Amino acid sequence: xxxxxxxxxxxxxxxxxxFGNAQYITVxxxxxxxxxxxxxxxxxxxxxxxxxxxxxxxxxxGVKSFGYFDGAGTAFPFEKGIIxxxxxxxxxxxxxxxxxxGGGGMNWPGDQDLDQALGLNNTYNAxxxxxxxxxxxxxxxxxxxxSSEQYLLYPTASQCNFTDGFAFLLKEAGSATYQNLxxxxxxxxxxxxxxxxxxxxxxxxxxxxxxxxFNDDEHPTNFNGQTVVLTAQSDxxxxxxxxxxxxxxxEGNYRYDSAIFLGGGSFNFGVSxxxxxxxxxGNPLCQSETLVVDGTQTGATAxxxxxxxxxxxxxxxxxxxxxxxxxxxxQINYGATCQTxxxxxxxxxxxxxxxxDEFTLCDADAVQDGKTxxxxxxxxxxxxxxxxxxxxxxxxxxxxxxxxLPDNYTNSTAFNQTIYARITNIQGCYTDVPVxxxxxxxxxxxxxxxxxxxxxxxxxxxxxxxxxxxxxxxTPVQTSQEITVNAAGTYSVTLTNATNCSKTKTFTVTASGxxxxxxIVINDFASNNTATIEFSGxxxxxxxxxxxxxxxxxxxxxxxxxxxxxxxKDTKDCGIVSASFYILDYPKYxxxxxxxxxxxxxxxNLDKRNLENxxxxxxxxxxxxVYQIIPESAGWDGNxxxxxxxxxxxxxxxxxxxxxxxxxxxxxxx
Length: 670
Hints:
The protein folds into six domains: about 15-270, no CATH class; about 275-345, Immunoglobulin-like (Sandwich), CATH 2.60.40; about 360-440; about 450-510, Immunoglobulins (Immunoglobulin-like), CATH 2.60.40; about 515-585, Sandwich (Immunoglobulin-like), CATH 2.60.40; about 590-670, Sandwich (Immunoglobulin-like), CATH 2.60.40. Helices cover about 5% and strands about 40% of the residues.
């Protein structure tokens, strides 16, 4: 029964037409195990292979789970090689149109060595290819691709950990311990569906750089996805017999087959002649440094060194001294028909050209103490004319310091300090570079100003002299020391001094004007005589009764009887206006003894308030009418019908023409 790959498909005729001539791999299960290893995987006269065996599914139809594949003319990365699967190899060729999950119900076991290598206990349907070999060089490697139906494009969350297992197990013959070579490069993590997966599905990506693609229908194989071409490799001891076991199995159950594709002819017996010396690795050769490389191998009959693929004439010794960068290789012959190769890539650390080693900033805070924050990351970017992107530049306070300075560094020596730049991930090639940090200051003290624009009369804003340049926030920008403005607003000027440091001064211009006194409201004949100044105008005003001492309140309290002049001043210096007023009150006593002082009782200044016609009647303590003061008279002299009245308290009633009545009492003293 054929199962569709996805639950929903949109079939478009044009797609079938477009891919009608797609190419798929083919498989051949007639190869013997010996043929697969000697003539397909190794395919080299240098190989000394023995004890080859293979095992897999025992399908009733006679189909095998291992064999030869041909990918020539297709988009598959390998032109030929070996396929090991957990199902039928006849299900492996494309198109990718149905789920391959053969091997159910046939008691096809897993593999104990695989379980032990991957920490499993539930493998099924294992296919195993194993053999012995004796390496001529000190390194082996071969290329492979892991493909699986478990690379689902539309998985559920519960399917994210479904994975089959495989391993490339290597050990010295007779040893009980295997080493797994099928790991993610640079780690010990086995390659599986859930350790190598790309983004774009419900399942989280993992080591996505090693994942190739999720496959659509038209693919050379019938698998949902695969890794990129990976290389299994290991150091070995020349002349020593090794056993290798290549094994793949289903995990958990037989469903969703997986396969290992081994690149034909990729099993190489190479020679390691040392690690690459690369800028990216932090170990390039320094300028004028040389490197002695030893390619000596037991049993070798001849050597030939090459640089960048070109034979180096006369360089036929096992040892070669490298003096310049390039791709070097040594061809090592073992008799007439066997040749192995060792390679090493060499890069030189470049000569660094200093672009800028002096950096100047202005002191950025309020305290102009010659210290400020430098961005050392930016300084590192500007320090050299060009530098490899992998170089790490750190800064230190002294050439002997081992503790790097922070990215945002405040100079510890005021105004002028030298720190040292060091390439920290390239050892021994460069000396520290002195970097000078200079801090300039802006010492002038700027005070913001608030000014009044009096009745829209233009005013001049003066930023002060002694600066190298001025820049006002006007449109267009003005660059003079003074500007004239005729509108309220906030004006700022950036002042730059001779060391190119700047500060900003702000002028707040407020529309203002001289006040108009509209009324003076007087409350007198009271225990607290007050005068309230009513006014109008654009400005903010202050008030004074002596022209010197001003207050913000327009109310004056506790005023004594008499004449006053009020001054109203605009706080933005637009002008002062004044007005006079009188506070009326009655005397609290009088002394009619004819000494010319305080001889009459009278309320003064009534005429100043147009109250001169007010009626003022005086009564004794018993309420008996005593005297009525005639307007414009001198007042009461303390007599009644020419007879002096006694010293005591008397009462008065004053009827004002506005209907108000004022009452009070006073003392007559003789």
